Amino acid sequence: MRDVSILVPGKLHEHAAKRISEEFRLVPLQAADPVLLAGRDASAIRGIAAMTTIDAAFIDALPKLEIIANFGVGYDAVDAGHAASKNIMVTNTPDVLNEEVADTAVGLLLNTVREFARAEAYLRAGRWAREGGYPLTASTLRGRRVGIFGLGRIGQAIARRLEAFGLPIAYHNRRPVADVSYAYHDSLRGLAEAVDVLVSVAPGGAQTHKIVNAEIFEALGPDGIFLNIGRGSTVDEEALIAALAAGTIRAAGLDVFSDEPHVPRALLELDNATLLPHVGSASRATREAMADLVVDNLIAWFDEGRVLTPVPETAGLAAVRTG
Ligand code: NDP
C-alpha cells in the first residue's frame, strides 16, 4: 500500500473503493463539501476518486490535491478548468463503455419506435388473450434518416450499429470528423431539419446547456423521434414536454434527465416518452471496467507521474508532485 491518501466523497463503485483501499489510504467523506473537511487533515489528501460534483470551492479546500479521478466519461460535474488552472490532473473513463452505451442507445431507439416495453406490459396484463393483438405501432425505423449530435467515441459506436440497420447517418459536431463518410452539418438545427431521428450523445457543460430546444424540435418535425443518451442538461426539458404533448415531434426516448433522479411528472404521463433511469453503461462488467480505469489512473499518476486517460483540459499537465 502506498503512503498516499485518496479522498472518496459520497458513493463510489464498490470495486473501485475496494481497490483504492488496497492500493492507497482511502479517506471516506460523506459528500464533496468543504464544510465536512473541518477537523480533518485536508493537507494530507493528494487524490480524489469520485462520481459526484467536485466544484472549485472543494478543490481549493484541498491544498495538496494533485489528481481528480472521475468515475464516468462525462465529467461535467468536475470543474476541470479550475483544476487545470491549479495544475491538478483530471481523468475520466472513456472507451471502456462505448459499446455498452451504444447497445443501450439502440435498445432505447427500438423501444421508442416499436413500443416493445408497452407491448410486453400489455401481454403481462393479460390483454393479448382478452383483447387481441397489441395495436400496430404508428412508427417504424424503416425509411428513417438518423442524425447524431455528438459523433465522438460513443456516437460513432451508435452510428456503426445503425449503419448495419440500413439507415443513412448524418451528424453535428463543432468540427467534422476525419475518416467518416457520414454527412456533416455545421449546425444542430440544420441536422435536425435533415433527419427524422435525432440522437443526442453530446457532453454536458455550459456550451451545450439546453442547446436542444423548441427550435430544434420544430426542425425535427411531426414524424421526428428524439433520443437522449448523453446528458439531460443539453435539453430544454420543458420544451421537450411541450413538443411531445403538442405532436411537434412524434416520440422521445430518454436515458438522462436534467434533475436526476427526479423525472418530471409531465414526462411520466406522456405515452410517447420512453424512459430509462440512466442505465447507458449500467452492466456489472462495464461498470467494473470503469472502476478499474479510475484506480489505474491513480496508480499510474502516483507511481509514474502520468495518467492513462486525462480529460482534454488537463491533458498537457506534467506531473507536479507536492507530496
Ligand atoms: P466524446 O468526447 O468522444 O464525444 C463528444 C462529441 O460531442 C464529440 O464528437 C464533440 O465533437 C461533440 N461536441 C462536444 N461539444 C459540442 C458542442 N458544443 N457542439 C457540438 N458538438 C459538440 O465523448 P463520448 O462519446 O465518450 O461521451 C459523450 C457523452 O455521453 C459524455 O460526455 C456523457 O455525458 C455521455 N454518456 C452518457 C452515458 C449514459 O449512461 N447515458 C454513459 C456514458 C457517457 P467536437 O469536439 O468536434 O464538437
From TrEMBL:
Pfam families: 2-Hacid_dh (PF00389), 2-Hacid_dh_C (PF02826). InterPro entries: D-isomer_2-hydroxyacid_DH (IPR050223), D-isomer_2_OHA_DH_cat_dom (IPR006139), D-isomer_DH_NAD-bd (IPR006140), NAD(P)-bd_dom_sf (IPR036291). CDD domains: HPPR. This is 2-hydroxyacid dehydrogenase. Residues 106-280 form the D-isomer specific 2-hydroxyacid dehydrogenase NAD-binding domain. GO terms for cellular component: cytosol. PANTHER family: 2-HYDROXYACID DEHYDROGENASE YGL185C-RELATED, 2-HYDROXYACID DEHYDROGENASE-RELATED. Keywords: NAD, NADP, Oxidoreductase. It comes from Nitratireductor arenosus. Residues 39-311 form the D-isomer specific 2-hydroxyacid dehydrogenase catalytic domain. GO terms for molecular function: glyoxylate reductase (NADPH) activity; hydroxypyruvate reductase [NAD(P)H] activity; NAD binding. Gene3D superfamilies: NAD(P)-binding Rossmann-like Domain. Belongs to the D-isomer specific 2-hydroxyacid dehydrogenase family.
